[in-house]
Structures are given as structure tokens and as C-alpha cells.
Design brief:
The structure holds 2 protein chains of 2 kinds. Chain A is mainly alpha-helical. Chain A has 24 helices and 5 strands. Chain A has a 3-stranded mixed sheet. Chain A has a two-stranded antiparallel ribbon with strand order 4-5. In chain A, helix 2 runs parallel beside helix 5 and helix 5 packs antiparallel against helix 6. Among the domains of chain B are: 86 residues, Tetratricopeptide repeat domain (Serine Threonine Protein Phosphatase 5, Tetratricopeptide repeat, Alpha Horseshoe), CATH 1.25.40; 89 residues, no CATH class. Chain B is 73% helix and 0% strand. Chain B contains 17 helices and no strands. In chain B, helix 14 packs parallel to helix 16 and helix 16 packs across helix 17. Classes of the chains: A mainly alpha, B mainly alpha. At the A-B interface, helix 1, helix 2, helix 7, helix 9 and helix 12 of A face helix 1 of B.
């Protein structure tokens, strides 16, 4: 009997070191580690997101049983929002909202850190909220959950901050591939929206995780597409102007929706913090009341989208649903419910498209396709207008339909909606939401320039800021020796904006020497006014060219360099001379030697 | 993680190798746990969804039975949305659409069903019904055939048979006797205990222009059940079609006795009686009687055709008939005149314009039968 035990022990002593060697090798080779982690994260995220989808679906089915009483449609979303509101305030404060701005914040501000608590919170709160009929989507939360899992896994494995940060989009793409059943669009979305850079060097890992997650989805749920779409095609080239009109309608609708959502959110954010737990209930009650009359408003509404895509369109109903959904989603999101706007955007687009298509088909029955084709294109159009990822939206619709012929009208419609949205609403929605939270995340337009000279190359230490209540006369005494033409102002140790020396001098000449600097700052439109976050500023990772542009716009030759996480934190300043110096065009004559010495 | 070169070696993770391994093992355990959770959730989801779809289907059936077509369509559509691969739900949806007069929608639904279930009997049958409603009989017949030879679940034999009868009924309405006969021939060998079926098939053979086959089939029924009034009526019809008016009268008289309240049989009996009175070819009547009956037949035929519009093209035949009917001494003898009269009557009847109304009264029907028989 002793012999086999000895043999087993010998075997164990042989394979254990081998395994450790293998592990050590894996840890040392980043390419192999990236490969393995992409597969592992893809599989895990795929499984978690599938569980999230199934759980939400089952919960919803139990909350709204067939033939259930009408009062359920009021009570369930109201209570659901109340419960999730309490959970969000008490236990999971970071799980509020969509999840996509939070994911971007994790990459660009928090070194890729998303806690397990946030992941669990997002899963639980969103499952409860979406199942109760809140008019929000599951895709944004899935992205946050996926990114969070990637972050947790990477940190558990003891990876570096940079590695953790790079794994976030890997988790995001896996989540979206499983949530929306569109693996290619998931890759593009991760690069276009999350990273803001289609040329990001993580492409391979993102593709791998997305594919793995998609395979997991198909393994568990089978090859069932999210939407069942009839094979539509362009009936006549004369149809293209109608699709252009759809782009116009979709673009205007998108802008209206985004502005409504942001305005409502701004109102809610002004309410006392003590009401935070009850705010989601406002959204829940509103959607419940709407749902009592029109049940299709409840939930993400993919069933209704599926019907409309099948050509089951009643013009008035489609218009009404588009408007009601815009309001319900905006209110639910603004009031702080957990859920995304990705799915509702699709719903709104489908209804707008169906309405345009129906009108077109009534007017030109022989030259236009069925309203379902327009609903399909409308989905992409609204996505391009609201989320502002035109490439992702085209590929997503292509993946949903698996039909190439609808792509040309889709591209026309998308580009028009994108252009209108860009003209009428400066920031894309996720960026605007981040800005409302005081987070200044890099935009897509910024990323292509990221490889060039950055502000950090020209940053210098900030001078001691003037206090907000300091009189103009004393302020001028303090700054008159300096070569800096603008000076930072702080309000209770928090950065408040830049004041020009010339403005101080002019105020003194006007006999306003005893006026506090803060008052002068508030009157300066280029500073955005006191309390505003929109004063001219730059971030360290922005290109230097942007600093020059900002200087031109604001007429300040000194700009504050502030934190992305909080623009009230002053990290330094950048002057025109410093920028020129960084470009190799020094202007030493303009800075006195004493000033240069002081700052070097 | 950035995509490094193949040989990239970067800073090691802060965890030690055993810690790394332990974390990795934990992740794999999580994957396995979630795999089981997902499988379980998916199973529950499938079962609950199926049950929900089945209840929607049942409710839809109930609503369809009370002719609440829109609500039924809605339930079936919801059931289809849950279980898209379920042909039964899709066919039910198409059925509700057809009941609501949405033939085009029903056709589209069925065409999509047939992409995956080309041989489904119920789908093909419903498609045939949709096409019949749209007046596309030729296409409908093809779908009826596919339904007859298609896939049926339980009780496939009787379902196939009922489809075939539906097709035969369509052919009967169309008057397509040859096609009808082709559909009936495979039914000749029905089991002898299927009395009702054999009775139906026997009568259909008569309608299909094969009265002898019909009579043979009905005779076997009468051998087993001599009091079958319907079989006797069928035998009477077959005899009428064969021109055996006496036999027909006898069979129909028995049928009438066995089924005294049946007005159709009573009417047929009256027809047989009229035929026996009018028939100039009847055996056993004298030449004078034959001549008289021939004259009577020609007179009636002329009168019937005169009632029709568009008599002009056959005015030459009508003139000849009127000339022959003019009382005058005959040089050729009554037998020759009778033959000529019968020939003219048949010719005149055959030349009637297609717009002439069908015979309605028993006498007119008798006239039609006799003229057709004379022509053949």
C-alpha cells in the first residue's frame, strides 16, 4: 500500500514545480498573458452578462404575469425604483446611471479601478430596476459590469495599473457582445466610445474577448438574434431622399432627447442630497403612470421594437411611443435609476423610423420599402445621433440584420443625424453626463492627437492663487511684478478661474479697487462665471495645440492645468511662452530673468 | 493590455506566482459556477417561456373559437414572439389572420413558416385555404397536394383524408371532374368498415362523372346495411347519371321511404318521375308514344332556348325545329320525324349560349339531362 502513496507524492512533487514554471512564464510574457486574459475575461464576462439578462427577464416575467392587473404597472416600477434608490444610496453609490461614463472615468481617472462592490451593485440594482419596468436599457450596465469584472480580475492577479486600465475595454467589449449579440459592433464601440480611439493598440485583445463572450452567449442561449428582421432592401434610388429625411428627423429627435435628459438631470442634481434615495422613485412613478395607459412604455421595449421591425406599424402609435419613451427614459435616467440609454435609443429610433417609413409608404407606396425597413435604419440613426458613434451604429445594424443591402441608406441617414446632433448639441451624451458630474474625460476628437506634444510638456507650477474675497487693489499689488498676464483665483482653497492682470488694472482705474476679485471673476464671461465649471482650462494629457486654441478663444495667455477628476484642483499653469518654447520657438525677451528663475 | 511584441517581457505582476495561480484558480471556479448558473437559468427561462407561450396559444384558440379574431391574433403573435420556431403557433397566427380577412399577411406568415417547414401539412393546408380565398385556385391545388402528402402529427391518416376531401370539394365546385376523379381513385380501397367514408366517396364518384364506380361502392354498403337511405339515394343518383331512370326511381323511392323528411331525395324522386314521363328513349313505349315524347322534348327545348338571350346565332337550328314542329302531313313517317326531332333538340341544347341560366325547375333539369344524354 505504501508504494502507490509514494508514487503519487513523487508525481505531485514533479508537476507542482512545472506548473509554477508555466505560471511564471505566463506572468513574464505579456503577449501570452494578454491572450489568456482576453479569453478568460471574455468567458467570465459573457457568462455573467448572460446571467444578468436571464435573471432580469425572469424577474420581469414574474413581476408582470400574463393577465396581471393594471395597478401592477404603477406599483411595480415605483417600488422597484424606491428599493434600488435605497440600495444605490446606502450600499452601491457608484452603481447609479448607465455605466458607460463610469467606465470611461475608470480608465482615464481612476487607473482602471472598478470595485467588486460596484460590479455586484450594478448587477443587483439594474436587474431589479429593469425587471420592474424602468424605461432604461441593459447594455450600458452590462458594459460597466464587464469592465468591472476585467478590473477586478486584473487587480486580483496583481497586474500593473497600466495593464488594469488596458483590460477595461476588453471587459466592455465582451459585455456588449453578450448583451447585444453583436460582436463586431462591440469591438468598435469599445474602441470608438470607451477608448475614443479606433487605433488603440488593444484591438487584438478586444476582438478576442468579444468573440469568446459571443460564443458563450450562443452556447447558453442558442443562435437566436436579438431582433427578427425581414430581409429589407432599397426599393428604388428615389428612396434615398426619404432616408435622408429620416436622418433629419432622427438627428432632431436625438438632440431633443439628449437636451431633455441633461436638463432634467441638472434639475435633479440641484435637489438636496438627502433626497437622493427617493429621487429614482419619481422616475419609477412617472413611468408607471405612463405604463398604466400605454404598457409598451415600460422596460426597454425590445418586444415592441421587434414588432415594428416586422412591419407591424400604426403611425400614431409609433409617434406616441417615440415621444413617451423619450420622456420616460430621460426622467428615469435623470432621477438616478440604474440603467442605460443604449437600448432606449434603439427604441426611440425604431419608432421614429417606423413613423417616417409609414408616412413615406402611404405617400409613395411603389417606391418605398415597408415601414419596418425605416424602423431598422431609424435604430441606427438614433444611435448615431444620441451616442454619436456612427461607425458602431452602422456595423451594429449590419450585424442585427445580417443584410448588406440596407447599409447604404443607413449610412446616409446616420451621417445626417450625426451631423445635426454635432451641430445642435456640442458634447456627445456620455461626455455631457461626465461634465455634469464634474468629470472632464477626453473626447474622441482629442484621441487622434494624443501622440503629439502634450500640455504636460509645458506645464509649470501654479503661482499662489488670489483669494476670492481679496480686494482688486491688493490683488494688483501682489501680481504687478509678475510677467504672468493672468492669475489663478481660489475660493476656499478650490480653484475658481483665471483673472487677467489687465482686468484688475482696469477695475482699479474705474475706481473699483475695493471690489473683491471674485466679483470681477464672476463678471468675466470667458471665465464662465463663478461656480461654473466651464472656465477656460486644459488637462495635462491634452495636446499643446489645444492649449493654444483655448488661449485664442479665452484671450488668456496663461491657462490653468486642472485635474480631469475635479476641475477645481489646480495642477499648474501653462503660458503662451511655455507652449512656444515646447514647440522650439522660445521668446526669452518677454519674460524677465527674475520671473524665469522663479519658475524654473 | 497593450499588444506587445512577441518576446515582450514587462514588469511582473505584483502578486507572487502562487498568489497569481490562486487568483487564476478562483477565476476559473467563478467561470464554472456561472456556467452552471447560466445553464440552470436558461433551462428555467426556456420552460417558463414555453409554458407562457402555450397559455397564450390556448387563449388565442379560445378567442378564435368565439370569433374574437384581433385578440386571438394578438395572443398568437405573442406566442410566436416567444417561440419563433414553433410552427403550430405560426400556423395559428396565420389562421387568425385569414379569419380576419388579412389574407396577404396570412400568406406572408405561412411563406416564412415554409422556409423551415416546407412539408408541414397544417401550414400547406392553410396556405391552400388562403389561396382559395384569394381566388388563386391553381396554386391552392398544389398546396392541397402538399398538405395531403405532408407531415402531420398524430392522427395523420384522417387529417390527410379530410384535406383530400377539401380538395375534392373545391374541384367539385370548379366542375373539374377529371381532376376530381383522380383524387377519388386512391380512395376506392377504403376499408369496408368505413361506411360513412365509403358512402361519401361513392356519391362523389357520381359527381365526378364515374357513376358506375360510385354505384359499385354504394352497393357494397347496402350489402352490409340494407337500410342505408343515403346509400340508396346515392345509388339513385348513380342510376340517374347512367340513364337508368327506372332503377333510379326505384332506389330513390326506397331512399325516400327510409328518409322521409329528406327534401333533396324527394326532389330527386320527382326528377326521376319526370324523366320517366319525358324520356323518348325509354324501352317498352310504342313508336307513337316515342314520337309524341320527341315532339314534346323538342318543343320544350325550343321554349327553353327562346328564354335565353342571344338566340340569334342558332336561329337556323331554331327555325328548322319550328319548321319540324309545324303540323303537316309527314311523308317520311313518325319514326324518322322523331329521330330528326331528337337530333335537333340535342343540337339546339348544345348550342345554347353559355349565359343561359341553369335549369331550375324539375322539368327543366329533366330536359337538360335528356338532351345531354341524347347528345352523348
Amino acid at each position: 500500500m505504501s508504494e502507490p502513496i509514494t508514487t503519487a507524492a513523487t508525481r505531485r512533487t514533479r508537476w507542482a514545480p512545472r506548473l509554477l514554471v508555466l505560471v511564471e512564464d505566463l506572468r513574464r510574457r505579456e503577449d501570452r498573458l494578454a491572450l489568456v486574459l482576453s479569453l478568460v475575461i471574455g468567458a467570465l464576462v459573457g457568462l455573467v452578462v448572460v446571467a444578468f439578462i436571464l435573471l432580469t427577464g425572469r424577474l420581469a416575467a414574474h413581476m408582470y404575469p400574463a393577465g396581471g392587473a393594471g395597478w401592477r404597472r404603477i406599483l411595480v416600477p415605483t417600488l422597484g425604483a424606491l428599493v434600488t434608490g435605497i440600495l444605490l444610496v446606502r450600499f452601491f453609490p457608484d452603481a447609479r446611471g448607465s455605466g458607460i461614463p463610469q467606465t470611461r472615468a475608470a480608465i482615464f481617472i481612476h487607473d482602471g479601478r472598478i470595485t467588486l462592490r460596484t460590479v455586484v451593485g450594478k448587477f443587483v440594482c439594474c436587474a431589479a430596476s429593469l425587471a420592474s419596468g424602468i424605461a432604461l436599457g441593459r447594455e450600458g450596465p452590462s458594459v460597466h459590469i464587464g469592465s468591472g469584472i476585467a478590473s477586478v480580475v486584473a487587480r486580483r492577479l496583481g497586474l500593473s495599473t497600466a495593464q488594469v486600465r488596458w483590460l477595461i475595454p476588453v471587459g466592455a467589449s465582451a459585455a456588449l457582445a453578450a448583451a447585444f449579440n453583436t460582436p463586431i459592433a462591440a469591438v468598435l464601440f469599445s474602441l470608438e466610445e470607451i477608448m475614443g480611439d479606433l487605433h488603440a493598440p488593444i484591438l487584438g485583445s478586444v476582438v478576442l474577448s468579444s468573440t469568446t463572450s459571443w460564443m458563450v452567449l450562443h452556447l447558453v442561449l442558442g443562435d437566436e438574434p436579438l431582433f427578427h428582421v425581414a430581409p429589407y432592401h432599397l426599393v428604388s434610388p428615389w428612396e434615398l431622399p426619404v432616408y435622408a429625411i429620416l436622418g433629419l428627423v432622427g438627428g432632431l429627435g436625438s438632440v431633443g432627447f439628449v437636451k431633455l435628459l441633461l436638463a432634467l438631470r441638472a434639475r435633479f442634481s440641484r435637489l438636496p442630497k438627502s433626497t437622493l434615495w427617493v429621487q429614482p422613485m419619481v422616475g419609477g412613478l412617472a413611468v408607471g403612470l405612463l405604463g398604466f395607459v400605454v404598457p409598451e412604455v415600460l422596460g426597454v421595449g425590445y418586444d415592441q421594437v421587434d414588432r415594428v421591425l416586422g412591419g407591424d406599424v400604426v403611425l400614431r402609435f409609433a409617434v406616441m411611443l417615440a415621444l413617451l419613451k423619450m420622456f420616460a427614459t430621460a426622467l428615469c435616467y435623470a432621477s438616478g435609476n440604474a440603467g442605460g440609454i443604449f437600448g432606449p435609443s434603439m427604441f426611440i429610433g425604431a419608432m421614429l423610423g417606423a413613423a417616417v417609413g409609414r408616412v413615406a409608404h402611404i405617400a409613395l407606396p411603389t417606391t418605398t420599402a415597408d415601414a419596418g425597413a425605416y424602423a431598422l435604419v431609424g435604430m441606427g440613426t438614433a444611435f448615431a445621433g444620441i451616442i454619436r458613434t456612427p461607425l458602431t451604429s452602422v456595423i451594429m445594424i449590419f450585424e442585427v440584420t445580417r443584410d448588406y443591402t440596407i447599409i447604404v441608406p443607413l449610412m446616409i441617414s446616420n451621417l445626417i443625424a450625426f451631423y445635426i446632433s454635432q451641430r445642435l448639441q456640442h458634447e456627445p451624451i456620455y461626455e455631457a453626463l461626465s461634465l455634469q458630474d464634474g468629470l472632464h474625460l477626453p473626447t474622441g476628437a482629442f484621441r487622434p492627437q494624443a501622440g503629439r506634444l502634450r500640455v504636460s510638456a509645458a506645464i509649470r507650477e501654479a503661482p499662489e492663487p488670489l483669494t476670492y474675497d481679496l480686494a482688486v487693489r491688493h490683488a494688483l499689488e501682489r501680481v504687478h511684478d509678475s510677467a504672468l498676464t493672468s492669475w489663478p483665483v481660489a475660493d476656499e482653497d478650490r480653484f475658481a478661474g483665471m483673472i487677467r492682470t489687465s482686468d484688475l488694472a482696469a477695475a482699479l482705474a474705474d475706481g473699483r479697487g475695493d471690489v473683491p476679485v471674485g466679483e470681477l471673476l464672476a463678471a468675466d464671461t470667458s471665465s464662465g462665471g463663478a461656480g461654473s465649471l466651464r472656465f477656460a482650462h486644459v488637462h495635462g494629457d491634452q495636446p499643446l495645440g489645444q492649449a493654444l486654441a483655448r488661449m485664442g478663444e479665452s484671450r488668456h495667455t496663461v491657462l490653468p492645468v486642472v485635474s480631469r477628476a475635479d476641475v477645481r484642483i489646480l495642477l499648474g499653469v501653462v503660458t503662451l511662452a511655455d507652449v512656444l518654447k515646447a514647440y522650439g520657438m522660445e521668446r526669452p525677451a518677454q519674460l524677465p530673468a527674475s520671473e524665469l528663475a522663479r519658475h524654473e | 493590455m497593450s499588444e506587445p511584441s512577441r518576446s515582450a517581457r514587462v514588469s511582473l505582476p505584483s502578486a507572487t506566482a502562487p498568489e497569481f495561480l490562486a487568483a487564476f484558480a478562483l477565476i476559473l471556479v467563478a467561470i464554472i459556477a456561472f456556467l452552471f448558473l447560466d445553464e440552470w437559468l436558461a433551462k428555467v427561462d426556456r420552460e417558463e417561456s414555453r409554458a407562457h407561450a402555450a397559455s397564450l396559444y390556448a387563449e388565442g384558440r379560445r378567442l378564435l373559437a368565439v370569433h374574437d379574431v384581433d385578440a386571438a391574433s394578438d395572443r398568437f403573435a405573442s406566442a410566436v414572439a416567444i417561440e419563433r420556431a414553433n410552427t403550430r403557433y405560426q400556423v395559428a397566427l396565420a389562421e387568425a389572420m385569414l379569419a380576419g380577412g388579412r389574407t396577404q399577411d396570412a400568406e406572408e406568415t405561412l411563406r416564412s413558416v415554409m422556409v423551415h417547414a416546407e412539408t408541414d401539412g397544417a401550414a400547406n393546408l392553410l396556405m391552400a385555404r388562403v389561396l382559395v380565398r384569394e381566388g388563386r385556385h391553381a396554386e391552392a391545388k398544389a398546396f392541397y397536394h402538399r398538405a395531403v402528402y405532408g407531415r402531420w402529427g398524430a392522427d395523420s391518416l384522417s387529417r390527410r383524408l379530410s384535406v383530400r376531401f377539401e380538395l375534392i370539394a373545391l374541384l367539385d365546385r370548379e366542375g373539374a371532374q377529371a381532376e376530381m376523379l383522380a383524387e377519388l381513385l386512391p380512395l376506392q380501397d377504403l376499408p369496408s368498415d368505413s361506411v360513412a367514408l365509403r358512402r361519401t366517396v361513392g356519391r362523389l364518384f357520381v359527381s365526378a362523372g364515374s357513376p358506375q364506380r360510385g354505384a359499385d361502392m354504394l352497393r357494397t354498403i347496402l350489402q352490409r346495411s340494407p337500410d342505408d337511405g343515403i346509400a340508396y339515394a346515392g345509388m339513385g343518383d348513380a342510376a340517374l347519371a347512367l340513364g337508368n331512370f327506372r332503377t333510379a326511381r326505384a332506389d330513390l323511392a326506397i331512399a325516400s321511404r327510409l328518409l322521409p323528411g329528406d327534401t333533396v331525395i324527394a326532389e330527386r324522386l320527382a326528377l326521376a318521375d319526370t324523366l320517366l314521363v319525358l324520356d323518348p328513349m325509354q324501352r317498352g313505349i310504342g313508336y307513337q308514344e316515342r314520337a309524341a315524347r320527341s315532339r314534346m322534348l323538342l318543343e320544350a327545348t325550343v321554349a327553353a332556348t327562346e328564354r335565353c338571350a342571344g338566340l340569334a346565332p342558332m336561329s337556323a337550328i331554331a327555325d328548322s325545329a319550328r319548321f319540324l314542329l309545324t303540323p303537316r302531313p309527314s311523308r317520311r313517317g313518325p319514326a324518322v320525324d322523331a329521330d330528326q326531332m331528337l337530333g335537333l333538340a340535342a343540337e339546339l341544347w348544345a348550342a345554347r349560349p353559355s349565359g343561359c341560366p341553369n335549369a331550375r325547375s324539375i322539368r327543366e333539369r329533366a330536359l337538360a339531362i335528356l338532351n345531354v344524354r341524347l347528345a352523348s
